[in-house]
Amino acid sequence: xxxxxxxxxxxxxTKLGFILAAAGSAVGxxxxxxxxxxxxxxxxxxxxxxxxxxxxxIGLPVMIAELSIGRSSKxxxxxxxxxxxxxxxxxxxxxxxVLCGVMILSFYTxxxxxxxxxxxxxxxxxxxxxxxxxxxxxxxxxxxNAIFALLFMGLTITIIRGGVSDGIEKATKFMMPLLxxxxxxxxxxxxxxxxxxxxxxxxxxxxxxxxxxxLVLAALGQAFFSLSLGMGALITYGSYLSxxxxxxxxxxxxxxxxxxxxxxxxxxxxxxxxxxxxxGVQIYDADGSFLAGPALIFQILPQLFAQIGGILGLIIGxxxxxxxxxxxxxxxxxxxxxxxxxxxxxxxxxxxKAALYVGLFVLTISMVISFNTGLIxxxxxxxxxxxxxxxxxxxxxxxxxxxxxxxAVDEMKNGFKDIRDSWFTALWxxxxxxICPIIIIIILAQTIFG
Length: 450
Ligand code: PFF
Known about the structure:
Helix content: over 70%
Shape: globular
Radius of gyration: 21 Å
Distance between the termini: 50 Å
Bound molecules: 4-fluoro-L-phenylalanine
Oligomer: single chain
């Protein structure tokens, strides 16, 4: 692992390595599983547009903010707030971030486990081992959930124990290009199928009568979740970033990659849903609502793969779930890195031990969820839909009114010499001090008290 002599913390070896790792954190189940299902359940293009507005107006400024805090302090989220201000409250924001990381990881691992188990479901279905296939696709089976969550967490712990450049950077550098390649091939395949156009129409033609407070909250929550914001993941990744790099440019690339892959996943999933419907697969519940959530990916898509049939159906099915597992792994890595870096920095524990202890702790919670999967929605709502925008709001307040936007701009100057004279400084400061907090407060207040 490359180390920084003054702090012996890890550092990224290359700029590309950092961008791929941060994009790997951002691109995950959130893009390929959650974004298309949210889009489908919230009226297609209307959601897509509100989501893009949230990413641009709030996501990108907050990402730049997190990276600046991380690189300036060279600390985990708790230590970072402590290092940059004397205020006693803000380290609690870091602790909230670590808690969100632990709780999101505890259910994320289970869904990631489902994606991985479905690689085998596809193979078992193809080879006629229907008993094994239906055993693995039974989400109500706590033992199967637990075993695959364990496998997934084992893999994540192993990579985190490898460190920043030898573990995280190496793994994501190989996985991200592979993921984009598989996604592109599948999207092109689906778009050429007869009947794909109906899905495309719903995805790309907005119906603004669908825009409600719930849709706006869902879009904001999705923006934070998908960009890995609000819990300090990018404070942590920023803390390993060299002073030579341009934070604004890096954040723009990461945002572009995340939005690009979510958009691509929508181009794949939305037509697929309608293809499945054309082939007789049920896509609406008895009450007329959309079959969103786990059902969408894990029930509708395998039926489509089965209908494509033969070796082609198998290849597409296996590739899809493998792709989803890869995307999930680059995100579980960052989710585990946040609490691990906290334990390393604040409690002086070695990386190998910290990753193991934190991983086992999260796994204990995952075991409980494995047998009570109904908890997933509640944990997701508290810690991602509400928790991440809340964390983002407090980060904006911290920079805007305590650490000061000027200090953040000074930090950004490393690697971006002309920033002081640029229009960007003024605009970003206005966003962080006023626009982002006001929008987040309005949306959160509407949700909680509305
Ligand atoms: N961004 C990831 C996804 O879209 O699946 C999920 C995630 C990872 C959220 C890391 C938060 C985080 F800190």
